[in-house]
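Before relying on records like the one below, remember that each one covers exactly one chain. Contacts with other chains, cofactors or solvent are not represented anywhere in the record.
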Amino acid sequence: MDSATTPMTPQALADHVRLGMLAHDRATRALGMEITSMEPGHATITMAVRADMLNGFDTCHGGYITTLADSAFAFACNSRNTMTVASGLSVDFLAPGREGDVLTARAVEVSLAGRTGVYDVVVTNQRGESVAVFRGRSYAIKGRPTVALPAACGATAPEAH
C-alpha cells in the first residue's frame, strides 16, 4: 500500500457498497424501501405496505414481501464488494401484511464458503410479529466487484488495503 492509499474498514466498505448498490437498484427504490442498517454479511431494510401492494384479499401480495426479503438478502451478500447473485431461494409466509404496515426484513449470513453462501431473512411487521421467513442461496462471481471503489482505496476487498 502506498501513502496515497487509504485503508477501508469492512464497515466502511459495506457502507460504500450500500450507497453504490442503492443508486442502481431501481426496484428497491421504486417500492420505497429504506436500508436501515448494513454491515458485512447483514442488512436490514424496511418497506411500508401501500394500497397498490394489496392483493384481492386486501393483504400485501406475497411477491412484494418476497421482494423486500430478496433486497435485504442482496445487500447482505454483496456487503463485502464481491458481486454476488441469488442461486435460489425459498420463502414461507407466516402472517399477512396489511396496508399501512411497516415491514422489516433482517438478513443474516448463515454460511459463506468459497463462492457460495446461505442467508436467512426474517420479515416482521411494526409490532414485531413474524410475517415471513426466507432463505437465500448466493453465488459470488469471481473477480467482479459489486461497486467501484474510490480511487484513494484502489482495491475491491478490505483485506487488500
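Residues 54 and 60 are 4 Å apart (CA to CA).
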